[in-house]
């Protein structure tokens, strides 16, 4: 018999242990069993009560959460007061809703998104500044965003190749801020965020394109917006890195791009014009661009006189070799790309033989240049005064 047998049959006669217990012992065993059953039932009941409490509360909370999703908080009515809100280009319904909520126009972005998703014209919301009211219902906010009359700001498009002074004039017409005020800000450029290679000059760094102008914006804020747009675009194409690869400074690239833009007609001509500039500079030939002379004179014309060519200015590329000291206009992305990647070729000359239709012809020899110049003179004769 081993130790386990001792516990299973302590008397050693083979009878079950219960038969050898006294009645008193048997009663004691039964009481213990009843207590264990009662304890088990109590534990089960407690567990059930706990689960009911937990899941019951969770159900209430879950219902509250779902109700918030189905019926997000929203204001009633058309709102009060006035607030100017900017909707940026490409903003989604959720982004617009968040913007409106931040300006306290709507109570929750979710409520606006719900109204946005129900409106079939929602995708027609245009970027720009809007005159809104605070504490509006989301549906009322949607209606204002779709109403052209609620547009508060001014939209202006700055064409590629415009000089800074011309940009100031365009902005003055749209904003009511005088061109002189823009000029004054440009002369104190520390707050405009110009890149270091701009050397404190805005010329070349007022990026062309369409702008939504804040109706309450100052001359400084507007020019800062345009410079920020340039910086964004320059970063997106890695202007500094590509200039380094081309062994040029970023300022040289922008100066070159401004010349390409000023001289160019069709976009397909820009890389070829860029190559002409590279070739002439490499040979030590003066560029002899009328556009640089006219920049020095602050004029716009197709007719440049011999007297004009004598202007005493570092921008006179008839009397000074190489590139001018800085950009002569604000170039667009195609001109910047052409400045960085000129087309392969041996051209040394180009002439706009038909400026009206933006026809430009290229030549390698002086004899070829004289031939295409005759074409331009014929066009000029047929279009007096241009």
Which key phrases capture this entry?
49% helix, 15 helices, 386 residues, mainly alpha, two-stranded antiparallel ribbon, 6 strands, disordered N terminus
Give a nutshell description of this structure:
The chain is mainly alpha-helical and 386 residues long. It has 15 helices and six strands.
How do the helices and strands line up, and which of them pair or pack?
Elements (H helix, E strand, L loop, with lengths): L2 H6 L8 H4 L2 H48 L9 E8 L5 H10 L6 H10 L9 E7 L3 H8 L8 E5 L5 H12 L3 H8 L22 E5 L5 H18 L2 H7 L4 H14 L6 H13 L7 H8 L35 H8 L8 E6 L4 E5 L2 H17 L4
Antiparallel strand pairs: 1-2, 3-4, 5-6
Describe the structure.
The protein has about 375 residues and is mostly helical. It has 15 helices and six strands. The chain has helices at about 5-10, 15-20, 25-70, 95-100, 110-120, 140-145, 165-175, 180-185, 220-235, 240-245, 250-265, 270-280, 290-295, 335-340, 365-380, and strands at about 80-85, 130-135, 155-160, 210-215, 350-355, 360-365. The strands form three sheets. A two-stranded antiparallel ribbon has the order 1-2. β5 (about 350-355) and β6 (about 360-365) form a beta hairpin. α4 crosses α5, α5 (about 110-120) crosses α6 (about 140-145) and α12 (about 270-280) packs across α14 (about 335-340). The longest helix has about 50 residues, at about 25-70. The termini are far apart.
